Amino acid sequence: MTSWRQEYLLALQARDRIEQAQKPLYDAYTRLADRAATADAQARAISEAEPTSIQPSKAAPPKTPAQPPSNAESLAQIRADLTEAQRNRDSLQSRLKDISSSLQKSKSQSAIDKKRLDELASERATLTLRLRDQDEELRGKTKLLEDLHDEKVSMTLELNMAEHQVQRLRKENEELVERWMARMGEEANAMNEASKFA
Question: Is 85 exposed, middle or buried (0-12, 13-18, 19+ CB in 10 A)?
Fold first, then answer.
């Protein structure tokens, strides 16, 4: 994802390229405006000079105005060029307005993106801290579980040993009881035998 700075720089570069591309039109418009002003000044000068140069004498041959038509044609051409330049200027101004609007929107969007990036960075830092705490808690619980498992294994071994000992003691007790009963039986038989001869 491009950063807002890169978008801003790209918009500025696009604006500069458009302005550089249209620079000849700006220069042409300036030259045409200068030519139009010069032609208007010449036309005014000729129109002001004609009444004073005409003599009231009827004998004088009428002069053929060769220069004024040329100036008029030149003026008409200049005005046509000026009109075309004005149209180009209006078109450029409209495009410049659109680009300026787009640039402003890009700036606004960049500001929103920057704010969102700041929020995401803050949220990331918070989640990283929580994840670290969760990892530590998980390690503690894992250690506790391992300790409990080891203790269970140890208690199972002790229980098995105790059961083996109980079984051994029970067997020994049974053997002792049997031996005692056998002995008591022998003593009873001996007493019975002794009582017969008494």
Answer: buried
pLDDT digits (tens, 9 = 90+) for 159-191: 999 999 999 999 999 999 999 998 998 888 888
What angle is formed at CA 148 by the lines to CA 147 and CA 151, rounded to 5 degrees? 85
Query: Distance between alpha carbon 151 and the CA centroid of its chain, in Å?
Result: 52
pTM: 0.36
